[in-house]
Q: What sequence folds into this?
């Protein structure tokens, strides 16, 4: 299966000790000859929270909010 992710534009709101980031995301999957269709595409957005500890930024929250799916929703599932 071929998988591809595209994101952007990335927006970040930085404060003293934490930050919030977000961007739109599209994920496409392709599996030639799959029953029900070769392609599935997810459309949504990523939301990330970061915290600064000891001078280093660390991701402490990560969420993908799905808007909708196009194509073969069962692509890649095993029976």
A:
């Amino acid at each position: 299966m071929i998988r591809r992710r595209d994101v952007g534009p990335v927006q970040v709101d930085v404060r003293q000790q934490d930050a919030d980031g977000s961007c739109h995301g599209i994920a496409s999957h392709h599996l030639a000859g799959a029953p029900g269709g070769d392609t599935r595409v997810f459309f949504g957005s990523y939301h990330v929270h970061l915290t600064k500890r000891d001078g280093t930024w660390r991701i402490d929250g990560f969420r993908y909010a799905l808007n909708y799916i196009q194509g073969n929703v069962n692509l890649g599932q095993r029976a």
The mean pLDDT is 94. The beta strands are 2-7, 11-14, 18-30, 39-53, 56-71. The first strand starts at residue 2 and ends at 7. The chain is about 0% helix and 70% strand.
